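To close the section, here is one more complete example, presented without commentary so you can practise reading it yourself. The ligand is beta-D-glucopyranose.
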Amino acid sequence: MYLTASRKPPSRKGSMHDVPNDLMKHIHELEEMFTIHTPKLLEIVSKFQEELVKGLSVAGGSIPMNPTWVIGYPTGDETGTYLALDMGGTNLRVCEVELPEEKGQYDIYQSKYRLPEEIKSGTGDQLFDYIAECVKQFLIANHECEDIKDLKELHLGFTFSYPCEQNAIDHGILQRWTKGFDIEGVEGHDVVPMFEAALERKGVPIKITALVNDTTGTLIASAYTDNTTRIGCIFGTGCNAAYMETIGCIPKLAHMNLDPNLEIAINCEWGAFDNEHFVLPRTPYDRHIDESSPRPGQQTFEKMVAGLYLGEIFRLALVDLYSNPDVKIFEKQDISALQLEYSLDSSFLAEIESDPWENLMETHALFEKKLKIDTTEPERKLIRRLAELIGTRAARLSACGVAAICKMKNIESCHVGADGSVFNKYPNFQERGAKALREIFGWGKTVRNDPIQIVPSEDGSGVGAALIAALTMKRIRKGIHAGVNVKRKNSLIPPIP
Ligand code: BGC
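Output:
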């Protein structure tokens, strides 16, 4: 017998022949609930495109389409040393980034800090004091000076990845918390003075030069090293995208009389897509997640695709099957650990999907260790299928957002720089998204390389934020003050003598 060479890594066969009929029936029900076929993908893309355009209009829509005041792409000539601070959903990262003379190069060193869970529902002062303290510790550790007060002034790109209405590049009003944050007294306020006050309390001498969304950072960092990049995306704890729009196509900025040919990065905040529930095929589990969240009715799209929610969708589906008297699953088992809200995260699903064994031994061990549940092999086959369905749905829906931006901008080929734990670590997420794009655009087998490809990005919240700070300083030095807040107490623009 000849063995043929395969380009793909071998995958598990995944036969369902030993799954009893009644369990198989429920697997089919789950498949029905979570599968999004091509016609539905197309319907979603078309609605998505409509909503993106609406977000740019004066009347607006549910997708905010926030102008960021990042004007144009980097040229590669940006130089200097900048601080970058990333306040993500789970971690806090402080970096120092050096942009040398060589085009497209950078050096970066960084420290990571865990964001304590209790901070996510504490007060604004607690949050910003904690962040300021981390920045202080970073500076003390990395700068050999007696007192950090003596440091020469450093400029900071602050990646704050929540929807902000940016009236200026170094200034942003938090529209609402996402990713499970619920801190009082910050929504509706400018986060920059709050953070500056905390830095002052801690005696940290830095200037916030730019407030950056992670997607904008990703777009700029990727474009810095790959000039075919047109979109930056994050598929992580939250989900979102940014792209460059020409001012002339943004009716809601018309009153500012800016050059219509200027390009400005738009932070879509597409997690809010379909808050009206027009088109997304929500399951009872999606509805439950929304209704019991701190912000019901918001981030409908995000709640179906982002890492924060994938484990919870999975958990709710299993609890529902267990409580159904017609389903024989986890019989005589204590499922109290499974009943704990948000006890499973997307890495749990990723591990199930990575189990290479035909009898899903690793899944058995995972359920035993994490949930104290001893699963049977047919149960594990249902579990694996459920994880695949949830992961696949997330990837296919994410591709809809990318396709909608490309269709709106008539982009026929480009790279989409992507980052985030789901994109980087969830098995098959990238391939599943690529397959959905092929279905949406109808690229047949004759198209050798997909014209639009979602590729791993450069470090958006590190080098991207530093580049945006550098672009801002470059603009100020040239005396171009559009998008820079002149009135702020710590304004970057020196007062006219
Ligand atoms: C936030 C966005 C962010 C995305 C990815 C969402 O929850 O609203 O601002 O870009 O998560 O981090």
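Once you have examined the tokens, check your reading against these statements. The domain at 72-226+459-478 is CATH 3.30.420.40 (Nucleotidyltransferase; domain 5). The mean pLDDT is 92.
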